[in-house]
Design a protein that fits this description.
This protein has 512 residues and is α/β, with parallel strands linked by helices. Among the domains are: 62 residues, Oligo-1,6-glucosidase, domain 2; 66 residues, Golgi alpha-mannosidase II (Immunoglobulin-like). Helix content is 23%, strand content 16%. It is built from 11 helices and 20 strands. The strands form 5 sheets. The protein has an 8-stranded parallel sheet. The chain is globular and about 80 Å long. Bound molecules: beta-D-glucopyranose. The site of beta-D-glucopyranose (BGC) has 9 residues, from loops.
Length: 512
Amino acid sequence: MPSWLKNAVFYEIYPQSYYDTNGDGIGDINGITEKLDYIKFLGFNALWLNPCYVSPFMDAGYDVEDYCKVAPRYGTNEALYNLFEQAHNRGMHVILDLVPGHTSDQHPWFKQSRLPTKNEMTDRYTWTDCVWNRPPEYSWVAGMSDRDGCFLINFFNSQPALNYGFNEITHPEWQMSYTDPRAQATFDAMLEVMRFWLDRGCDGFRVDMADSLVKNDEEKTATASLWRRARKMLDESYPEAMLISEWCNAPRSVNNAGFHCDFLLNHQYKMTHYGFRYWENGVNKSYFCKTAHVSAHNMLSKYLDELYQIQGNGYISVISGNHDTERISYMLDESELRLAYTMLLTLPGVPFFYYGDEIGMRYIPQQSKEGGFHRTGSRTPMQWDNSLPNLGFSTADASKLYLQVDDQPNAPTAVQCQANPDSLLNLVKKLNAIRSENEDLQADGQMKILVCDDNGVLAYLRGEHTAVVFNPTDKAQTTTLNVQQELFKIGSYTVKDGITTLESQTAVIFKI
Ligand code: BGC
């Protein structure tokens, strides 16, 4: 286990939208490097960058054309190596996005694979044996080249699935086993990509659709066997490098596949009732919504169940949101966000904050860009200050921007929030400081539920001596828990005769 993970708090950066240093209207790697001091000031000590590789950007870069080259619009490989170095100088870590399940249809591997004549890339992707053969249980693209067959896709039509073989063979005429050397060679190629970046200072990977590799793999045992190979390589050659999966099943990801960490996403592609139900129970229904008055049980049940199953083997990551979800501020108002962030930063595991959530950036529904569709509204440029034309994001003319900045007169900015001691940003900074000074609150400390009442009061013990209690509702609530030795509070409370009254929208971190 990489030693830095136990106290890691991540900040996710969508490079398109963070900071533009060359005035072309799109964020760049040098922009991230320039903002490292801001990120460190907030108390984040690790970064996850969304894909920044050469790509036709049909899916915002999740359609990779060259795994080992930074997209010119973001800069150069040297700029990225410099970012690694500057981050390390500040005691921070940087992980990249690895997209192993599919490439762009513009990747040279695919361009070769689609040729009608047999060549060394013929089996790098999954093709049927004839263009008319399209088994309905899979998603196919047909007729896009002269190769007589259809190719399997993983996400959009422009993202052909790499061939890691099948666990159960149901169509022997075109499927191969995942143990076939041709299928294993695809994973070898992915290990090469990992080595390329790790050798140049990268600290690990967030692995996109990590569970999607081997097909017809219901229990994911074959897919897990591949990731075990990656973990072995890391343990042997890069013991301080981390792997976090987009899997949403921590027992499979951590216990079986060997990931250090798995994301428990609040929802995936509009599939609700999944993962950590922070706020997606619906408008006005989230645990944190002051008028909801619901027990925290539903929100926490899957998280706790998985947490107990993986303890000692790895971590679960809970997120404020990400580039695929509506922003958390879409569902919760600022006073509710304060409580949600207090929980996010006091749970076990490795928390992830999405850029801009520290200032309460808005979700702005708008026309799709680069395959974003409903996700585009969460990908707008970071709001740095009140300067024109683009709130400090870029000096380019607004018409040239990747996406427009929030045009509301009250759009929050980082500078404004830094100056206001009561801002969300300063709350996040304070919570990060408390977490980093208090081992109980970090990744490893145990979590035990002390109170989980129907009136909305929730309290949990972290480690041996630190507890956190919440009343997110708009009414005072009581509990027999004795709140004392306060480390941090939002709202107010009183303790009398062994009864604690928590006023509306209160959270307290305290020692017991
Ligand atoms: C990423 C998405 C991407 C998809 C396909 C995901 O889960 O987070 O942004 O579109 O994988 O690569």
